[in-house]
Every structure is written in C-alpha cells, then in structure tokens.
Design brief:
about 90% helix, rod-shaped, mainly alpha
Length: about 45
C-alpha cells in the first residue's frame, strides 16, 4: 500500500514539474515577445 502512495506522489510531482516547466517556457516566450516588439516583430509573428 505504501508503494502505491509513493508512486502516486511521484506522478503528481512529475506533472507539477512539467506544468512549472511549461509556465516558465511560456513566460520566457512572452518576455522575448515584449522585448522583440521594441525592435521588430520577427519572433512574435511566428507564434
């Protein structure tokens, strides 16, 4: 029973980590877009 609990926690931890990772990625892309809009819209035009 304890093994199953630990297994469930690792899945939750993995999915949480992936969500955080994707949020960081999106945030980075948004920052690049904001900076890019000052110079040119090359990156934002692709997204």
């Amino acid at each position: 029973m304890e093994e199953r609990k630990a297994w469930g926690l690792s899945i939750i931890r993995k999915s949480y980590f992936l969500q955080v990772k994707s949020l960081i990625l999106v945030g980075t892309l948004e920052k690049i877009c904001v900076l890019d809009s000052y110079y040119s819209n090359s990156i934002c035009g692709m997204i």
